[in-house]
Specification:
Blueprint (H helix, E strand, L loop, with lengths): L8 H27 L31 H4 L13
């Protein structure tokens, strides 16, 4: 009596089809999420208003600076979170 192979091409085709359907469903849900209009909280930009003061720390490469001292300069702010 011949031994049956545990993995057949039919099973491989079934898993490939399942993977294809899962990828398609993920793509459709991502596109649906991106197509939703943003809520009103997305439009709370402070256009025409001064930037808020940068609080917190520590300042690594200089003493703490105010917005007035940074006026007219390009400022890169990097936010880290641990949680």
């Amino acid at each position: 009596m011949a031994m049956k192979r545990p993995w057949t091409w039919a099973a491989l085709g079934t898993w490939a089809a399942l993977g294809t359907w899962m990828a398609a469903a993920g793509l459709v849900s991502a596109l649906a999420f991106l197509a939703m209009p943003p809520g009103p909280e997305a439009f709370t930009a402070r256009v025409g208003q001064p930037a808020p003061e940068i609080t917190g720390g520590p300042w690594i490469n200089s003493e703490p600076l105010s917005m007035e001292k940074l006026r007219g300069r390009v400022v890169a702010v990097e936010f880290w979170t641990f949680g």
